[in-house]
Amino acid sequence: MALRSTQTGFGPVTKGFHWLMAILFATMFAIGWYMDLLPLGLEKLAWISRHKSIGVTILFLAVLRIIWRLAEQTPAGLGEKAWERQAAKLAHFALYAVMLAMPLSGWLMSSAANFSVSVFGLFTLPDLVGPDKVLYEQLRFTHWILSWVIVGLVGLHVAAAFKHHFINRDATLRRMLPGTGKGN
C-alpha cells in the first residue's frame, strides 16, 4: 500500500494526520471547556495537566504534519473555481498556523504563570519566559481567542467539505475519509 498522496487522492499518512488532529482538537476543546467549569482543586489540576500534555502532543504532531505536507503533493482539485482554490489554501494555511500558535500560546502562558509543562509525567518542558502576571493574562486571552478561531476555521472546513459533497456532488470529502480509495 502506498503511503503518499497522488494526483487523485490522499494517502493514508495524510488522512491519519487529518483525522487524528480533528479528534485531538475536539478533545482539547472539550477538556478546556470542562476544566474551566471546575473549582480550583486536585481534579482541576489533573485536567489542566492532561490538557497541557495533549497540547504538546498536538504541537509535535503539527510540526510533523507540516513537514509531511511540504513533502507531499496535493491531489488535483475537482473543478473548483479559482477563488475557491485560493480560499481553501488560505483556510488550510490558517489551520496550520493555529495548530502551532494554540499550543505555543498555552506553553508560554504556563511559563508566564510559573507553572511548568509536564508531558504525561514523562518529561518537563523548559519555561519559555519568566514569571510575568501581565504577560500571563495577555496569553490567557490569546489562548482563549485562538480556541474560538479554531472552532471557526474547523466549522468553515466542515462546511466546505459538506458543500463539496452535497452541492457539488464531487469526491472531495470521500477522498479524505479513512478506508476509502484515492480515486475521484
Automatic annotation (TrEMBL):
Residues 10-179 form the Cytochrome b561 bacterial/Ni-hydrogenase domain. GO terms for cellular component: plasma membrane. It is found in: Cell membrane. Its main location: membrane. Coiled coil: none annotated. GO terms for biological process: respiratory electron transport chain. The keyword Electron transport applies. Keywords: Cell membrane, Electron transport, Heme, Iron, Membrane, Metal-binding, Transmembrane, Transmembrane helix, Transport. The chain crosses the membrane at residues 16-34, 54-71, 92-125, 145-166. Its cofactor is heme b. It is a multi-pass membrane protein. One of its GO terms (molecular function) is electron transfer activity. Belongs to the cytochrome b561 family. This is Cytochrome B561. It comes from Thalassospira xianhensis MCCC 1A02616.
